[in-house]
UniProtKB/TrEMBL annotation:
It comes from Oryzicola mucosus. InterPro entries: Acyl_CoA_acyltransferase, GNAT_dom, Rv0428c-like_C, YpeA/RimI_acetyltransf. It holds the Pfam family Rv0428c_C. The keyword Nucleotide-binding does not apply. Residues 130-269 form the N-acetyltransferase domain. Keywords: Acyltransferase, Transferase. This is GNAT family N-acetyltransferase.
């Protein structure tokens, strides 16, 4: 299996972390946020989900920098799978993809969008002493309704999001801050062994800047630490400057980055 050195540089100027660390978080992410259908083409992981359009649930994820044979043919096979699901062909390019695939996509004019950070925080350093003891919701339907509201998403996504949450195999804590029946903020904390991943973090647009995001994250981290988690991690788009600032203020540090690619002319929304 080919690897890249810790000081290697990705095509867009970022240092490559140890690939073992990347593999750990990538594998945890796939388990914590499961796609409805999973296929492998060599070590390319193809994830597709008919009920939800999220990019990370509908993407090709190359997992070995050395697996670069027959790139064009394999892209064609992936394209047919995506077409069958009515999804735009999308590659999610992490450090595990290596430079050869990125160079091929560049040569074909594929766009680059949604660069994201994977961040981590040792829970011994998390300021959870100030956190409220919050019991996670047991009612998936109630959580899904709150999550869709604070994200400003269409209610037609309710069945798909419910299916994703119901399929999470590790222990998942569903957190929602509500006031007078109105959702203010939500988060999902997926606890697996000594690792806890945070997903679906959001604050209602009208309630931002009032500390609700910080409160719900710390409650989720406190819950995870009490269950034996030692390390928290999350993913966030670089352009979400407010969220990045909050996570850094809580002590999260960047581990690596990934981005998405689509063929020339394809929408990148």
């Amino acid at each position: 299996m080919a690897t890249t050195g810790v000081n290697a540089i990705l095509p867009y100027g970022h240092a490559t972390p140890e690939l073992a660390i990347v593999r750990r978080f990538e594998a945890a992410g796939f388990r914590a946020w499961p796609a409805a259908a999973v296929h492998y083409d060599g070590t390319w992981l193809v994830r597709l989900t008919a009920g939800h359009p999220a990019k990370r649930l509908n993407s090709v994820n190359p997992l070995d920098p050395g697996d670069t044979a027959n790139i064009a043919d394999r892209i064609g096979r992936a394209a047919r799978r995506f077409d069958a699901y009515g999804r735009p062909l999308t590659f999610r390019v992490s450090p595990l993809a290596g430079p050869k695939i990125a160079k091929h996509l560049d040569s074909e004019g594929w766009s680059v969008f949604s660069e994201s950070l994977v961040m981590q925080l040792p829970l011994e350093n998390a300021p959870v002493e100030e956190a409220l003891d919050q019991i996670p919701l047991k009612d998936i339907s109630r959580f899904v309704g709150a999550s869709l509201k604070v994200h400003g998403m269409d209610q037609t996504l309710r069945p798909g999001l419910s299916e994703i949450i119901g399929a999470i195999q590790p222990e998942a804590g569903l957190f929602a801050l509500e006031e007078r029946g109105q959702a203010l903020a939500t988060a999902i904390c997926v606890h697996e062994g000594d690792v806890a991943g945070l997903f679906e973090i959001a604050t209602d647009e009208a309630s931002r800047g009032q500390g609700y995001g910080r409160r719900i994250i710390l409650s989720a981290l406190k819950w995870a630490r009490l269950r034996g988690a030692k390390l928290a991690w999350l993913q966030v788009e670089e352009r979400n400057e407010g969220a990045v600032r909050l996570y850094k203020a809580l002590g999260f540090e960047e581990v690596y980055r990934y981005h998405y690619r689509r063929p020339a002319g394809a929408m990148t929304v």
